[in-house]
Amino acid sequence: MSNAALEEKNKKIRERMLNLSEVVIGPFPLDSPWLRPVRMNFIQDGKPKAWDLMRAHESVSIIIFNISRKKLVFVRQFRPAAYFACLPEKEAVIDLEKYPPTLGLTIELCAGIVDKDKPLVEIAQDELREECGYEAPVSAFQKIITYRFVSSSATKQTLFYVEVTDEMNIHPGGGAEHEGELIEIIEMSIDEVKNYVNSEEVSSPPCFLNGVAWFLNNKKDRYA
């Protein structure tokens, strides 16, 4: 896809992505299929303690390097959690002019939750196709590391690396339409990536920074 075509496609997706209305903050539903909050009670060093936490899906993420144009490929999405973090705590009905939806936009690695009974590399392959439009064989994926992201939950995340070419860009990308996904495909040169991660505030999760750092440190032969 040419730069002009990608920009036009992203523009249309962005319009739909930011078309928010009637944003209301409510109580957490106990039947959520995604997050299952619990309270763990325990005794540590003779003292009773309690910790609120939740169970969430494991995930895969992919560092994508387009060797045709020497660019890294990322995705941009509206993330409700990122938006929520910018909102005042005690307001239930959100003023969208005061708190525009752009506050919830993040740049991330192509990624997805592990919700299928398939090898992790095949889930990564599916996400590459659905989100970014590239078709790559399983053999092209290099597993980098599996680690735990620890916050209110401790989920296992597996990082992959894959190299793609323009010829492999044969699918629409932009996310799974039937799941309501709206995803922009973002390409950055090495200099653009370095400038972004060195800026004062990065609207990206830790796994993005981890993946970029790994690439810059281990793939100099591919971009230098």
Automatic annotation (TrEMBL):
Keyword line: Cytoplasm, Hydrolase, Magnesium
Cofactor: Mg(2+)
Known EC number: 3.6.1.45
Membrane-crossing segments per the record: none
Main location: cytoplasm
GO molecular function ontology, one term from the record: UDP-sugar diphosphatase activity
Compartments, as annotated in UniProt: Cytoplasm
SUPFAM superfamilies for this protein: Nudix
Keyword ATP-binding applies: no
Keyword check for Metal-binding: no
Substrates-to-products reaction catalysed: UDP-sugar + H2O = UMP + alpha-D-aldose 1-phosphate
InterPro entries: NUDIX_hydrolase-like_dom_sf (IPR015797), NUDIX_hydrolase_dom (IPR000086)
Nudix hydrolase domain ranges (all copies): 55-210
GO BP annotations, alphabetical order: nucleoside phosphate metabolic process; ribose phosphate metabolic process
An example Gene Ontology CC term for this record: cytoplasm
Cited Gene3D superfamilies: Nucleoside Triphosphate Pyrophosphohydrolase (3.90.79.10)
Binding partners and assembly: Homodimer.
PANTHER family, alphabetized: UDP/ADP-SUGAR PYROPHOSPHATASE (PTHR11839), URIDINE DIPHOSPHATE GLUCOSE PYROPHOSPHATASE NUDT14 (PTHR11839:SF15)
Functional note: Hydrolyzes UDP-glucose to glucose 1-phosphate and UMP and ADP-ribose to ribose 5-phosphate and AMP. The physiological substrate is probably UDP-glucose. Poor activity on other substrates such as ADP-glucose, CDP-glucose, GDP-glucose and GDP-mannose.
Name by which UniProt lists this protein: Uridine diphosphate glucose pyrophosphatase NUDT14
Gene: 100117070
